[in-house]
Specification:
249 residues, seven-stranded mixed sheet, binds S-adenosylmethionine
């Protein structure tokens, strides 16, 4: 992995410990079992590769269901948290924008908006290309991302406050670059007497653009759902899980 692939948005030790706490607070940990049940359907008794595996929030429960799970992440601290969680998952340091693997997988998955952390269009396409190449013939690629939500920007800026509970408040300050479809943000996390800072840059994609990028690398949409319990994707959905398979010859 090239050293310049890590930047101010990478999950260093501070961000990684914030992530662990954040997913517990916001209920993302609680939905991990549902995500694992959804994903297992595509790889029962088989193998799966997670892109941006992080601390194993979902990879852990999937592995506990008997799937051989492997993963890639570019953060040493997140990989350390994963290793503390389980020794059943083989994970390595790498860039999901461009990776190669030695075996083919039943399932490759990239969830919780990780795909949009690739903030350049060419990196997103390269990621899909690498993922397609890692699938076996019947293999499935599953991607979970948010539906872009651009209401409330004034002069390309937006500030939103989110009260998580009586001890924790988040204030998101965001800047929108419509030409590149990026949103650069700093979340300020107020808890007790401390204020922590969480910088992030994403490149948002609408579902139709995702389908087109997937088609460019030889994949076609098989299913799309609003959530892990497979509610229908509609015009009010805030996220989607899109499932792709190899394009039929
Ligand atoms: C939002 S977290 C998701 C973690 C985990 N997949 C989950 O669902 O809880 C994003 C993860 O992707 C990793 N990541 C971000 N960009 C990456 C890249 N270009 N290559 C590899 N890993 C990346 C981060 O280090 C982090 O662990």
């Amino acid at each position: 992995m090239k050293p310049n692939m890590l930047d101010e948005y990478s999950y260093d030790e501070t961000l990684s410990s914030m992530y662990d706490e954040y997913t517990r607070l916001t209920g993302k940990d609680a939905e991990a079992g549902k995500a694992a049940a959804f994903l297992e359907r595509f790889c029962i008794g088989g193998n799966a590769l997670e892109l941006g595996i992080g601390n194993g929030r979902v990879a852990g429960p999937l592995s506990e269901r008997g799937v051989r799970v492997e993963g890639i992440d570019n953060s040493d601290s997140m990989l350390k948290l994963l290793a503390e969680r389980t020794d059943q998952i083989d994970a390595w340091k790498g860039d999901i924008a461009n990776f190669g693997v030695e075996q083919a997988y039943d399932l490759v998955f990239c969830i919780y908006g990780t795909f949009t952390l690739l903030s350049k269009r060419e990196d997103q396409i390269a990621c899909l290309r690498s993922a397609a190449a890692a699938l076996n013939n019947e293999g499935i690629l599953a991607i979970e991302i948010r539906v872009p939500f651009l209401d409330g920007f004034v002069n390309r800026q937006r500030i939103t406050a989110k009260l998580v509970d009586d001890k924790n408040t988040f204030v998101d300050t965001e800047t929108h670059d419509p030409l590149n479809q990026t949103i650069t943000s700093t979340s300020l996390w107020f808890s007790g007497k401390s204020i922590r800072r969480w910088p992030q840059r994403i490149r948002y994609v609408y579902h139709q653009e995702l389908d087109t990028m997937a088609e460019c690398v030889g994949l076609e949409l098989a299913e799309r759902w609003e959530n892990w319990t497979r509610d229908a994707f509609t015009d009010t959905s805030e996220r989607h899980i899109s499932v792709y398979r190899r394009t039929s010859p």
